[in-house]
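Input sequence (204 aa), recorded before submission:
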Amino acid sequence: MAKNSPDEGKSTKMVEKQVDPSFNNLKEYRAKRQFSETPEPMADTVETPSRIPVFVVQKHEASHFHFDFRLEVDGVLKSWVVPKGPSMNPKDKRLAIQAEDHPLSYAHFEGVIPEGNYGAGTVEIWDSGTYAYVGNNRNISAAIKNGILEFKLHGHKLKGLFTLIHTNMDDQDRDWLLIKKDDVFAVTHVYDAKKISLYDEVFL
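Predicted structure, token format:
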């Protein structure tokens, strides 16, 4: 009579492979793109976060011209579409429509997205640098969830304190406001991001 295996009769449990949450956060990004046709980053690997979190603003000449504002948070770039572009004037409350998360490598992306693809048009980096979260929540992820985040940008054009405010806490509402705080870097004149050259470093 054969002996029973020591493990016989014991319940077996499938061991699930742990997936980095940032990889799952990019599902919408991957679903919207055909990487055989677009030069955009594929987001098929988990990327190492920066030692100091980065931000980037990209000028996007798509069907509707706009700027894309991105902050590195938890291994991805949290992204907002800013139709008029960011402003250094605290009186300007710029609409910022939250978009899908992008991979960290998108912070370096410039190029032409071919016609027929999502976001078709020319993408150029307008400003970039690092940033620091300075809000009252325990971290920036909690601040985003609570609908208000404050941060300090260290860019070539954008400098100093900014606020992003969710205008409606309904999860389906993607409208935020991007506002410059009144600090030593703030300006009082009309600030039109479209008229500032990609290569200009603005000294205030």
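Checked by second reader. Residues 135 and 150 are 5 Å apart (CA to CA).
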